[in-house]
């Protein structure tokens, strides 16, 4: 496809000018496909191989990992390589991998796919890091729900990628609209402090929410804006009764944050008042360790933000392992295609 023609030379790079009217700095889909996010040395490699008339020689490359984790990003890798004519094998998305395990194998003309090495590794490194963090949270939660609330901690260009990766890793949902849709889900969320501050009363917000939202939208109300959390939870539950699905605790650090003792008290007071059906969602600085403690105290679900969004990428490395059917490797690596029976042909 001509609109996705990739960079062919260093001269094209030198001639490329960023539009003075550009409003956002993030790369668009077309720029990634054309190669504008790649490292310059891959453009130089293309030129050298073309000059030597071997840019169409068939090679096999493998991508392996720097540490254990959960694989995410495979559909983007497949889509990025779709027009290159390569053969592609991958570990299934969502699978756990070990340190140094081969997760991707690519076979074809290096002149066609080599330009994408930077993007391929970046996609896999970031997405797998986020998916791995989400899996840790889900493991800590057991059968309880984990929802990714991390979009606000990232550049909006990549926030949907992060939230989709979180679902791949095991999160039960995501709040970012595009991220949830990319994962085949509907976005999940309650209401922010802002609307309660503007309207001036938590209960009034709850009543309006219950009245105007779709019937299948669970009514979950934030109860830490103006009053004591237990007092506000009982006030809202007393008004909405069985229509109230849950309350959310997001107490700021200035007031001690959401603690196991706070969750225990709110749970006990709701139960004593006959509102055992009301669930407790907790958010604000949630980590796997806090999930375990808060879950034991009575929390039913967890909104996790920065723990997932700030997860370190998992280093990925791509090595050439065969050139025209001959086993090769850089010094320190074993030549030839690795024995990787878990890879599946895509």
Span of the ends, CA to CA: 21 Å
CATH topology term of the largest domain: TIM Barrel
Overall average residue pLDDT: 95
Major sheet details: 6 strands, antiparallel
Mind telling me the CATH class of the largest domain?
Alpha Beta
A few lines on this structure:
By secondary structure, the protein is of the alpha/beta class. It contains 14 helices and 14 strands. A six-stranded antiparallel β-sheet has the order 13-12-1-5-3-14. A six-stranded parallel β-sheet has the order 7-6-11-10-9-8. The protein has a two-stranded antiparallel ribbon with strand order 2-4.
Provide structural commentary.
This protein folds into 2 domains: 2-128 and 312-345, Aldehyde Oxidoreductase, domain 3, CATH 3.90.1170.20; 136-309, Aldolase class I (TIM Barrel, Alpha-Beta Barrel). 39% of the residues lie in helices and 18% in strands. It is built from 14 helices and 14 strands. The strands form 3 sheets. The chain has a 6-stranded antiparallel sheet with strand order 13-12-1-5-3-14. Strands 7-6-11-10-9-8 form a 6-stranded parallel sheet. β8, α11 and β9 (244-249) form a beta-alpha-beta unit. The mean pLDDT is 95.
